[in-house]
Design brief:
Blueprint lengths: L11 E2 L6 H9 L18 E27 L5 E18 L6 H5 L10 E2 L9 E2 L6 H25 L9 E25 L2 E8 L5 E2 L6 H25 L3 H21 L15 E11 L1
Parallel strand pairs: 1-6, 2-5
Antiparallel strand pairs: 1-4, 2-3, 2-6, 3-9, 6-7, 7-8
Helix pairs in contact: 4-5
Length: 294
């Protein structure tokens, strides 16, 4: 409580709703998704420490405006010259305010459920650790928020427009104003796992149960899976060479893609789909197309 005073007093807090046993079970269930992990990695005895931490976050809201002009293609590969101008409202993009936390892993457990935000009270801290911010808003804006805001604006424009283009290769202007900053504590579980001399750290979002972290990969499982992929590709090439495209080819390609997806899902870190710009706030101010070439 001595830490959370004065300038470090949050505006909001999202209370914890789970206990350590819940979180341990959530982690152990990851075994079914991580097929390339060593079989014994998810044994309960490897979990060294589990703790609930209120992590400080800056929540940044603002109005955004984007103008772009240049060449692009539509879904029929027609070449177009476009001119766009759009406005939107960016609602509470988060940036963690603790420098010792891994930004990439924390980004992997978003989004947070802001409807669960409550005015800060000390009583919520009982039984949990609470960190105070050591990354001020100016620093967090430059290192995290600036890039995320630009990415959110560009992605929203592309989704609404339905065209294929690289904003960076076109004449563009992106601006923000009417900025609002809120300071909140979010409920995150930290899990420390020790396996064969290595230490692994994971973050778990108390709200959505998403886990983020890097998993070890079994050399034998990975080698076997890639050999399987290579065999399937070789069979595909052989059948195509002598028989052309057939149902067997389609089936083999399905097996190849399936094996690749299993591999990717097993080793990747979580990167959830995040949406911080609401569709009802997005408006085209200018919308012009000119067909250049079919």
């Amino acid at each position: 409580r001595g830490k959370i005073v004065g300038d470090y007093m949050p505006n909001y807090i999202v209370p914890f709703t789970r206990n350590k046993e819940d979180v341990i079970n959530i982690f152990l269930k990851e075994k079914s998704k991580r097929i390339l992990c060593p079989k014994k990695f998810f044994e309960r005895s490897n979990i060294m420490h589990v703790c609930g931490v209120y992590v400080p976050y800056w929540l940044f809201s603002c109005n955004g405006m984007i103008s772009i002009e240049g060449n692009c293609h539509d879904n029929r590969n027609n070449k177009l010259y476009i001119k766009r101008k759009a406005s939107m409202f960016i609602d509470r993009i988060p940036a963690d305010a603790k420098t010792k936390m891994n930004n990439e892993y924390l980004g992997g457990i978003e989004p947070f459920q802001y409807e669960k935000l409550k005015p800060f009270e000390y009583s919520y801290l009982a039984g949990f650790n609470a960190e105070k911010y050591d990354d001020n808003i100016d620093s967090a804006f430059e290192s995290q928020l600036k890039g995320r805001i630009l990415e959110a604006i560009i992605n929203k424009l592309k989704n609404e427009d339905g065209l294929f283009y690289n904003v960076n290769s076109m004449k563009n202007d992106i601006s923000i104003d009417d900025c609002k900053i809120e300071y909140a504590l979010m409920p995150i579980w930290c899990i420390h796992v020790k396996y064969r001399g290595g230490e692994y750290k994971y973050y778990v979002n108390d709200q959505n149960q998403i886990i983020s972290g890097k998993y070890p990969v079994s050399f034998f499982k990975e080698t076997f899976l890639w050999l399987l992929v290579m065999i399937l590709l070789g069979m595909t090439a052989y059948i195509t060479l002598y028989n052309g495209v057939s149902e067997e080819i389609c089936l083999l390609w399905i097996l190849v893609i399936g094996a690749w997806k299993l591999t990717y899902r097993s080793i990747k870190r979580n990167v959830p789909n995040r949406e911080y710009i609401k569709s009802d706030s997005f408006k085209f101010i200018e919308y012009k197309d000119k067909l250049l070439k079919k």
